[in-house]
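Subject: Interface between my chains keeps coming out wrong

I've been trying for a while to get a sensible model of this assembly. When I model each chain on its own everything looks fine, but I need the whole thing in one frame so I can look at the contacts. Pasting all components below, labels as-is. Any help appreciated, I'm running out of ideas.
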Amino acid sequence: MRIVCKKYEKNPILTKEDVPYPCDAVYNSGAAKYKGKYILLLRVLLLNGNSVFGLAESNDGYDFTVRPKPVMVAADKGPFKMYEERGIEDPRITRIGDTYYIFYSAYSRYGMRIGLAKTKDFEKFEKVALTTTVDYRNSVLFPKKINGKYVRLERPNVAHTLSIWISYSQDLIHWGKQELLMAPYGKHIWEDHKIGPGAPPIETPKGWLSIYHGVTWTMDGMTYRLGCALHDLNNPAKIIGIADQFILGPDEIYERVGYVHNVVFTCGAIPEPDGTVKIYYGGADQCMCLATAKIADLIDICLKGKRPPL
Amino acid sequence: MANEIVFKRYKGNPIITAKAVPRANSIHNSAIVRFRDSYAGVFRVDEQDMSYTLHVGRSKDGIDWEIDPEPIKMQSDNPEFYVAKLSYDPRVTKIEDAYYVTWCNAGPQGPCIGLAATKDFKTFRQMENPLPPFNRNCALFPRKINGKYAMLHRPSDVGHTPFGDIFFASSPDLIHWGCHRFVFGPKDGWQSTKVGPGPVPIETKEGWLLIYHGVWTSCNGYIYYAGGALLDLDKPWKVLYRTRDYLLAPTELYERVGDVPNVIFPSSAVVLDDTLRLYYGCADTCISMAEAELDDLIKFIKKHSF
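Reply #2:
Try treating it as a single job with all components included. I did that and got this:
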């Protein structure tokens, strides 16, 4: 199997020791570029078991510094409060115009649903809407309107195959026209149990590159890996190709040992002008890691892939 | 008749049975509305091949019904829309001059909510499924709330769903849905396993009157009851009152004996002057009705609330 992603030799790039307030893990973080800097919106697991979002900044995308305090926490009043009582998780950042939109999981006794927040400066964050009903995780927003509508990939947790769906919106608040795009595949391979959107899609001349996660059951629980798919630029509901292999899996100690073992999980990837992409990912629900790949290689294995979407 | 606190059962119950449709195995959980100067409805018919289909019915008095022998043929301009072989538990909501049917459209991806509109109960124009799987119960509100269409719904699983909460959502166009809110979930006793919206909510000065189903898991399976709630008029996810005591429990032979025993499934209601007439499915087999004075019902819900 071709190795297309290269793990950064100094992984993990962030651990709980790098967070200047008490916490037990830092993982599954959204990624963006803002004014030339790399930003990670960190899922930080506090000692009470609930997650908040911290923020880390870097000039080079490798060495990050975490701000002294969390930047976004569960609401303590208003309509979000009851839906975030167990914390906020797994942020995905998408820039449209000068606004950075953040889809995140709002967790409460009423289940998991997708909240939308936004910021223009990574200083002030505004919560906008609860954009799904229960029970959803893993929504990623495309970085521009397509045919006049906002588009997202999403993963309803209630459908009987845990799959990747698409939906559309005119205002980012009301979503509809849901359609099943891609289901788990195969038997006893890496993505036979469930799949879900990972990083917000990246625009390339050949199509939208989507890096997603796939899960298989072992005798010892679930193993999380990453794969990639290419969606049509004008109609992202149409999948051009899906790689026949995973592109990143847990084999280093920081991916194998942690809060949840054998997990690599991405919430954000940053394409670079040199044709590479930085894939930021959580290792073992414990730490933040980085892998790089050539976008052309990822597209190539998507185009050669024979894995059917459904 | 037992357990008649505010609702009194009609003496001629059940009012509609499988005899009303040529190939029916059963006819139950159905949506009845006032239509022009009479009544119309969309009925759940379980056919003799055990597909579930939606049929139109008409009645002058809401009691004696003629049910079309053939299922509704939905029209749409989108070839991707489907009417599932298992289409069931419809609700019909009149909004302005159109009647909207929401039903469980259990297609290849599992049970989800279907939506169609009609003005005459002859032509039904199908629209996008408003919510993805799994979801079984959906009732639209009879008017826009704060400028938007609104619904109550109950996400489910693919099987017999040992859980169920009532949720709210609203939409500018009946296609894109947002502002999702939790309304209420199971609680003690007869409603300890799951709850789901029943008939279309009825606007009263005390709030939206919602009749809902509550389910208790007995040692011999689920038992379905009817309860009542009053929801805030502007923010219907705010529960003002909700019955601790049930409104109706399966006690009659036609409620206790059938394809699924011990089921009262309230699915539509009409207001006749000061009276609320509730139509409910019995034991997944036939349809009955019961009536209550609206004032008594609201007083009961307020008095016997949690």
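Reply #3:
Confirming on my end. The domain at 5-304 of chain A is CATH 2.115.10.20 (Tachylectin-2; Chain A).
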